[in-house]
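Hi again,

Forgot to attach this to my earlier email, sorry! This is the prediction with NAP bound. I've pasted everything inline since the attachment limit keeps bouncing my files.
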Amino acid sequence: MSATILSGIDARTARIPLLVEQIKKLSRTPTLAIIQVGDRSDSTAYIRAKKTFAQKIGVHINHIHFPVDVSQDKVVRTIGECNTTDGIAGIIVQLPLPEHIDRTVVIEAIAPEKDVDGLTQTNYRKLLNGEASAILPATARGVRELCTHYLIPLKGKKVAVVGRSLLVGTPIAILCKQSGADVIVCHSKTVDLAHETSKADVVIVAVGKPNLITAEHVKVGAIVIDVGISKLDDGTIHGDVDYPAVREVASAITPVPGGVGPMTVLGLFENVVDASVRQVST
Ligand code: NAP
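Structure tokens for the complex follow:
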């Protein structure tokens, strides 16, 4: 079997006309404030990808770039200013932050209605409660939209989510459960990972360890969604899945790059548009 490739680029491209239409209908062009501290090359690359997509769909970006030694107070004050600036629909802080800055303090400084990465406790609580006004973490939203685009039903399916971080694995597991899937969450203490994942109809992996998931972890015909991103010493980007081997077993698989990454950017900008709509209508 050679798996269908679940292209995040194609799935995202298909959504662009609708997003552009929604943005045109808004009374003003939304602005996304991106706060960056320091000069990590991976953060700069992620921000560049967000700027490129924003330009494509007609969202303004206000990139606020601080030196690595900026004080936490200064970052929090800047977020406070963005919270009260009318044209700014959404605010994200590019993670990770340097060690002298407390991520929780900074994230919680974002007004929940502008928290388009869906990371504040307020949005997390809403996500857990399944409230419609929850702003979903962008990667989880992106994975859900990828499944929708490729008509992957989750209802009644056995889904194994590998990785349980608060930012990525756990929100994905919550959304899968809310879609009616029977979800098992695996992590670093899972005793026999292959035993757990090989029972699943859908395996979603968000760990950050290249080749963690091999063909023996995957049931024949299962769907495999690889969220992981690791940059190897030779500069190449890899997911968590042994792609050449697993694509021979799976019925569908996401590539890395070009799978979940583009969908995360889509999820973010869908959050920006939703936030704009809510802010304009309140
Ligand atoms: P994280 O906070 O480091 O969490 C990693 C998770 O993997 C933890 O829950 C950990 O378990 C689990 N884990 C570690 N080793 C394991 C093993 N051997 N077997 C099973 N589980 C194991 O990372 P994250 O922020 O969730 O990100 C995960 C990956 O997704 C990274 O590669 C990141 O770059 C990528 N990512 C991609 C996108 C995208 O758009 N494609 C977006 C966000 C993140 P414990 O909880 O037990 O420690």
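The chain has two domains: 27-113, 138-260. The two ends are 52 Å apart (CA to CA).

That should be everything now.

G.
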